Amino acid sequence: MVWLKKDVRLHDHAVLNYVMQQPNPILIIYLFEPSLISIPESDVRHWRFAYQGIQDFRGKIGHNKILVLHAEALDALKMIAEAYAIQAILSHQETGLEITYRRDQAVRKWCKRKGINWKTFERDGVRRNIPDRRGWQKYWDDYMNGDLFPVDVSGLNLIRPNLNHFQNGMVKIPDLIAKPDPSFQRGGETKAMKLLESFTQNRAKSYLKNLARPSLSQETCSRLSPYIAHGHVSARHVYQETKAVKDRLGRNIDQFHNRLWWRCHYIQKLETEYTIEKEPINRGFIGIEKEFRPDYYKAWSNGSTGFPMIDASMRCLIETGYLNFRMRAMLATFWSFTLWQDWRIGAAYLAKVFLDFEPGIHYPQFQMQAGMTGYHPMRIFNPILQAKKYDDYGVFIKKWVHELGNVPENLLATPWELSQMEQNFYNTHIGKDYPYPLVNYDQATREAKEKYWAYRNSEHVRKNLPELWRKHSLPKDIINYEEELNIQTGLVTESVMYNPKP
Length: 502
Ligand SMILES: Cc1cc2nc3c(=O)[nH]c(=O)nc-3n(C[C@H](O)[C@H](O)[C@H](O)COP(=O)(O)OP(=O)(O)OC[C@H]3O[C@@H](n4cnc5c(N)ncnc54)[C@H](O)[C@@H]3O)c2cc1C
Hints:
The chain is mostly helical. It has three domains: 1-121, 3-Layer(aba) Sandwich (Rossmann fold); 189-271, Serine Threonine Protein Phosphatase 5, Tetratricopeptide repeat (Alpha Horseshoe); 283-498, Orthogonal Bundle (DNA Cyclobutane Dipyrimidine Photolyase, subunit A, domain 3). The protein contains 27 helices and five strands. The strands form two sheets. Strands 1-2-3 form a three-stranded parallel sheet. It has a two-stranded parallel ribbon with strand order 4-5. Helix 1 (14-20) links the parallel strand 1 and strand 2 (28-32). The radius of gyration is 24 Å and the shape is globular. The site of flavin-adenine dinucleotide has 27 residues, from helix 11, helix 14, helix 17 and helix 19.
């Protein structure tokens, strides 16, 4: 039996490639697990995308050749085991949430009791059970450049499941999941391939130029993240297709490949230490005090903070599920520093609205932006500067913050500075049509930095650094982190450290 998880595709599929060479008939299953659908990080957008992936896959392997159940994993396996003599379960490894980790532990226990072999395959260059990163870079290079695992559907000896066996356990998949929503990217391997093709043929030529720009990057970034996260295309396939056009597209592809590398690097962190989902990477930060402000949460999460770039970014996410990297980082640092709020609450909310939610990227990234490692350089993305530098002609803000539609481009970043006459002139009244800023940006951010550095320089944060580097850093980077520690202890003044990079 093949249990498809985040790998619903035919190109480069280690599991399906493996079963092609086996004599036994194969049952393919996919599960919509109610307990996963109901966690706070989950949203209908994720399951709709997954569902569209299944529909696409069905079209390729034959409509009745995949068993899709809306049931908890153990319940589903028990039902299947009553109907079929399962000899082995095959699946890709999943670097997921604690809830999927615990579910996998329970499934493994059940398999052991039943004498069923559960064979798992590594996913996307991420390794299981490694204590540190020695040898990781070579493994990653070899993996990404290695042979893809092709699948020939005619070579699969597939069982056509008899649905009568499952009537009792079949709960209808919620209607909302099956209903498309045109504001979001549509799931499925076919869409992923088309998108990849348009990226290599045309869009990637402006990748670097527009990377930081929230509006233009929607066209010129790959937009492959939800497909890679849901496994509708493999990262290795994307890597190799883009490598093939490197001569033509040069640094655009180098930078793109760096990001594919980061992806695996971050996922490897969560794979090595699953507690990163819920606890600071550097446990020394456990005691840092941040009082929850429901009013801040409400304004930040629905895009009404009074900072146009923050609000435009959040509204864009809510409506489309997508945002470029820089603006995501800005949302995370605004939440964690300027509003001085707990990273876990912010991370859970963004997980829900990101169509590409990938736990292994998301939690380490959010924690890094929130300063929870205690060793990365601190960068707070100032929303006023981001608007001035990266929102050409105010297109992005005007698109998402309609209330400011009449305000000229050069005044858009700081609408609270409009004079009364300007407000009348543009028929945009601050405090009425659009809110005053939630906080005084400079003051709130300065105070946050002071509190943060006092904590970060404390012994309970610093004492964990060598252990963190040993576990999560590549051997060559450890030297840089040691330099970084020197910087923080006085070789370079703090003001240099505070300056956000352009
Ligand atoms: C706080 C925060 C949370 C994030 N959470 C997620 C998440 O849940 N899922 C997710 O896919 N990305 C996440 N990212 C990373 C990044 O913002 C997105 O991958 C990227 O914006 C997706 O757009 P794209 O596919 O067009 O990217 P491209 O620039 O075309 O990149 C190609 C691929 O590389 C990977 N990638 C790109 N940037 C990064 C990065 N900085 N770190 C790690 N991998 C990267 C992604 O798989 C992406 O699809 C997060 C970033 C931040 C700051």
